[in-house]
Amino acid sequence: MQIPNTLPQFAGHKVLLVVTAKEEGVLYRASDGKVEQVVKVEEHPEAPSDREGFFFRSGYGRNYGSGGPDAGSKDEQLRAFVKAVADELNEAIATEKPNIIYFFQPEYLKGYLESGIKNTNNTETHLVKLGNFLHASPLELIEFIRQYHDDTTDPRDPTSVADGPDAEEKRRILSIGT
Asked: For the chain, which terminus, N or C, has the lower number of CB atoms within 10 Å?
């Protein structure tokens, strides 16, 4: 897909866009004014087994007892998903050799993918936006990247806050750090 001239063209750069959600992820490649999907990853929870929903009981007595369902944990499912996406991302890094990787992911996945990749080329990585952007078009994602780079607010410099309704308050907060 051709990137419009109003958006970053990534001329001379190889860029990967990594978009993840709860059970799915998409990797896009952008370079020299074009963007295309590299791979889509899906890692759905296992189908219910014969013992799923089986309740076991501990303790005896008429009024005393406890139990819980025999089911897999959500952490195991999350680790399996992160591993699947990281494996695909590592393969894409090895073949594409990108200069920059941009991440779009939910807050609960923050840091998981970055720690799971093998960044042997010291590729620059950026977490552009937190949230579920799985169904956003690649051009919307590139617009978010443009906004990410256009954000000129430097947390170390209170004078970088643009004039606006709360500009004085923002400058005060940045200057004292609280």
From this structure: C
The encoded tokens of residue 163 equal 């004039």
Contact (Cβ atoms closer than 8 angstroms) between residue 85 and residue 20: yes
Domains defined along the chain, listed by start: 15-176 (3.30.420.60)
Q: Using CA of residue 141, residue 133, residue 13, residue 1, what is the dihedral sign? A: negative
Q: How far apart are CA 45 and CA 39, in angstroms?
A: 20
Give me 92's structure tokens.
Answer: 């894409």
> What tens digit of pLDDT does each residue of 88-106 get?
999 988 998 999 999 999 9
pTM over 0.85: no
Q: Are strands 24-31 and 34-42 parallel, antiparallel or unpaired?
A: antiparallel
Cα–Cα distance measured from residue 45 to residue 78, given in angstroms and rounded to the nearest whole number? 9
Residue 42: its H or E element: strand 34-42
